[in-house]
Write a structure and sequence with these properties.
CATH topology of the largest domain: BirA Bifunctional Protein, domain 2
CATH architecture of the largest domain: 2-Layer Sandwich
Number of helices: 5
Number of domains: 2
Structural class: alpha+beta
Order of helices and strands: EHEEHHEEEEHHEEEEE
Helix content: 10-25%
Shape: globular
Strand order of the largest sheet: 1-2-3-7-6-5-4
CATH class of the largest domain: Alpha Beta
Number of strands: 12
Radius of gyration: 18 Å
Largest sheet: 7 strands, mixed
Strand content: 25-35%
Amino acid sequence: MASTDDNWQMSLPDDWQVRRVAETGSTNSDLFAQAENSAPHHSALLADFQSAGRGRLDRTWQAKAGANLLLSLLFRDSHVEIAQCQRRVAVAAVRASRKFFGTDGGASQTVKLKWPNDLLLGGTKFGGMLSVADQKQSFIVVGIGINIGWAPEAAAKLADLSDDPSLTPPVFLGELLRQISDLEKLSNERLHELYVADLATLTRIVQIEFTDKQVVVGRAVAVNPDGRLLVQTEQKLLTIETGDVVHLRDAGGE
């Protein structure tokens, strides 16, 4: 959707300040710099195109201009508990995505999370997040990319299953921000329950590759309140803080 479309700001909740640009290198880098220059809590930067977008593990994030959500969000002060903040945005993204499936409850339930915060549509990735905090952890910038109208090869997009004509990146943004604001009212314990309920990783046999290229395989059995994944291998129970997860099969062996 081009940056000249009409009335997109009317769908935004009042407690967010959103700036939209036609093109930038990285919304995360831009909003981080603005945060260092005193940008307020609940600032958001939306871009129609990114020339240097990155995902987790420094992977390139590809998107066609105007077709997908390319967004960074700023959280400050009492809202800066990194693990909770990431989970809140992840759960909000799942809930916002499901809103665009109308009465097709079966289709909406294909939207899930892969630990820690990849968005899955029918088991295929259609979105992801990358967060960065300042050294004092006085603020955190959460970047999120969601394939809405276009997807690279081997990825999914929301338009694959949703026929909602209103589904555009700016309209999705409004729903996402409303969901985040609602989730901020919940306790950490309730948020954790919602996150676990949306997680497709639990009970599955998973492969985890670490940054040093070490690989482990085991069953994902739980997520700690601090967001760490517990994986039972043949030898021991591992607590995973970070790593690249691949779903191998579910509890039934599929």
